[in-house]
Task: structure prediction
Amino acid sequence: MITDGKSSLKQFLMHNHNSVFSTFRKNGLVQLSVVTVGPWRNGIAFSTPMNTAKTANLRRDPRCSTLISADNWYPFVVLEGKATIIDNTIAGKDELVSYLREVYTAGAGKQHPNWKEFDDVMAIENRVVIYIEPDRFYGPLIEIPSGFTANL
Result:
């Protein structure tokens, strides 16, 4: 049971990676995607091919939210904030490769068995990192600590 605020949120995110991620379409409707997330820096992150609907939506409007749940959908936590797209225009090639590896490890909870193969696939798929540092979070078993800052 998650009951002690910030450290519990970190623990929850380290062990739960199933996520439903939302962005806004041009027409204002919500676009949903199932993604695997992991704690990264002061928030959460995942990778996606550069030419996805979620990436296009985030370039237009970085507001987003994601519901992260346990395997049986409970407990869960929702994080809201603005996403940063980290691509090869933000990070150098080597830095992006490193970030993609870090994000994979955070989401999978383990190292990839073949980093060369992983790097090749990330390049072929033209993957970017989507990073969300939350402005707000809520969930049924998460107590928000007093004086909480968005930094995890």
